[in-house]
Specification:
InterPro entries: IsoCit/isopropylmalate_DH_CS, IsoPropMal-DH-like_dom, Isopropylmalate_DH. It is found in: Cytoplasm. Belongs to the isocitrate and isopropylmalate dehydrogenases family. LeuB type 1 subfamily. Pfam families: Iso_dh (PF00180). The chain has helices at about 15-30, 45-50, 55-65, 90-100, 120-125, 160-175, 190-205, 215-225, 240-250, 290-300, 305-325, 335-350; strands at about 1-10, 35-40, 70-75, 105-110, 130-135, 145, 150-155, 180-185, 210-215, 235, 260-265, 270-275. Strands 2-1-3-12-11-4-5-10-8-9 form a 10-stranded mixed β-sheet, with helices on both faces. A two-stranded antiparallel sheet has the order 6-7. It contains 12 helices and 12 strands. The relative contact order is 0.16. α1 (about 15-30) crosses α10 (about 290-300) and α8 (about 215-225) packs parallel to α9 (about 240-250). With about 350 residues, the chain is α/β, with parallel strands linked by helices. The chain has 2 domains: about 1-110 and about 255-350, Isopropylmalate Dehydrogenase (3-Layer(aba) Sandwich); about 120-250, Isopropylmalate Dehydrogenase (3-Layer(aba) Sandwich). α1 (about 15-30) links the parallel β1 (about 1-10) and β2. The longest helix is centred in the N-terminal third of the chain and has 19 residues, at about 15-30. The structure holds 1,4-dihydronicotinamide adenine dinucleotide and magnesium ion (MG). 1,4-dihydronicotinamide adenine dinucleotide binds near residues 13, 76 and 92.
Length: about 350
């Protein structure tokens, strides 16, 4: 197959980890006979420097025409003045909205070789295999904002249709996994959460084979630490999802390891590691590229329907985690390029 992939390296370590992910995709293409065409565009701080806009029109246009988009990270101290009118993160929110990618998928597993890096005891981490589905284009992040000298508001708004579509996505994914959905809200306090809960409960009846459980977000924050292995698919709104997924990421041992996919309905998928631009290590060639490489695997699975190739990349990553080399964030000494090369070499071992 032929596919056109737009890459948005962004800022900080973004370009370093994306280079590695593209190299792995090229190696997969070579081995499988597929042809991937890459086209790189600006987003975030580097786009602000070059054009004044965090999401230039040319970038958005290219993304809309692509089969999939692979993004590094945006932001950094250079652009983080809170008074600034234009900020790199606006580019990220704008592209998610423009592509209509309302469902953010974040899988979490804890590799046995890394369990010792996790703040939790080893036995709690056995069998952890969670898929977060975070609503990505609604809620407080996109609501009206007001500000006077001494008052600020952020409107949190959800429509039934917005909740329905992300819920259906979560249930469909659960069907392919362990048939269990946990919906997280704050229905004892928030009106948006009451709408969320009643909508999820109704949609669940379309999936009688999938079990539904509701949790309040505060108790979910605790349960993720005390019983992480109990959960299969966790679906929640934008703000709660942002917070819970970072909490869950800590269980895996390093932010550098975790991928994400943001999907809409028949639109272009957006794939990115969950970490930020890591300005403290940018430019040193030491960033862990595995989150970006696993995001590339998700791209193959969800946008190009190349499940076998995706699974091969995931197996190669697992092989490298078991056998080394390891990057600094997970206690090793290897740089980004060495990890990239080890994953590519492992593609042949696991095939
Ligand atoms: P961060 O994820 O960039 O870094 C947090 C810590 O994790 C740092 O110590 C960093 O060195 C380490 N780390 C992150 N990725 C790593 C990797 N691949 N390999 C090894 N170590 C890694 O989060 P932070 O420091 O809160 O934010 C830095 C900048 O990134 C800010 O400007 C923030 O706004 C932006 N950001 C961007 C995101 C995105 O583009 N999706 C997401 C989160 C933050
Ligand atoms: Mg976040």
């Amino acid at each position: 197959m032929k596919a056109r992939i737009v890459t948005l390296p962004g800022d900080g370590v973004g370009p370093e980890v994306l280079d590695a992910a593209v190299a792995v995709l090229e190696a997969v293409a070579e081995r499988s006979g597929h042809s991937f065409e890459f086209e790189s565009h600006l987003i975030g701080g580097c786009a602000i420097d070059a054009t004044g806009e965090p999401l230039p029109a040319a970038t958005l246009e290219a993304c809309k025409k692509a089969d999939a988009v692979l993004l590094g990270a945006v932001g950094g101290p250079k652009w983080s003045d809170p008074q600034a009118k234009v900020r790199p993160e606006q580019g990220l929110l704008a592209i998610r909205a423009a592509l209509g990618v309302y469902a953010n998928l974040r899988p979490l597993q804890v590799h046995p070789a890394l369990a010792s890096l996790s703040p939790l005891k080893n036995e709690k981490l056995k069998h952890v295999d969670v898929l977060f589905v975070r609503e990505l284009t609604g809620g407080a992040y996109f609501g009206a904002k007001t500000r006077t000298t001494d008052t600020a508001t952020d409107e949190c708004k959800y429509t039934v249709a917005e909740v329905e579509r992300v819920t259906r996505r979560a249930f469909a994914l659960a069907r392919e996994r362990r048939q269990h959905v946990t919906s997280v809200d704050k229905a004892n306090v928030l009106e948006t959460s009451r709408l969320w809960r009643s909508t999820v409960t109704r949609i669940a009846t379309e999936y009688p084979d999938v079990k539904l459980e509701h949790q309040l977000v505060d108790s979910m924050a605790m349960l993720l630490l005390t019983q992480p292995a109990r959960y299969d698919v966790i679906v929640t709104e934008n703000l709660f999802g942002d917070i819970l997924t970072d909490e869950a990421a800590a269980l895996a041992g390093s932010l550098g390891l975790l991928p994400s996919a943001s999907l809409g309905e028949g639109t272009v998928g957006l794939y990115e590691p969950i970490h930020g631009s890591a300005p403290d290590i940018a430019g040193q060639g030491v960033a862990n590229p595995l989150g970006a490489i696993l995001s590339a695997a998700m791209l193959l699975r969800h946008s190009l329907d190349l499940d076998v190739e995706a699974t091969t990349i995931e197996a190669a990553v697992s092989h490298v985690l078991s056998n080394g080399p390891h990057s600094r964030d997970i206690g090793g000494k290897a740089g980004t390029a060495a990890i990239r090369d080890a994953v590519i070499a492992a593609l042949d071992d696991v095939a």
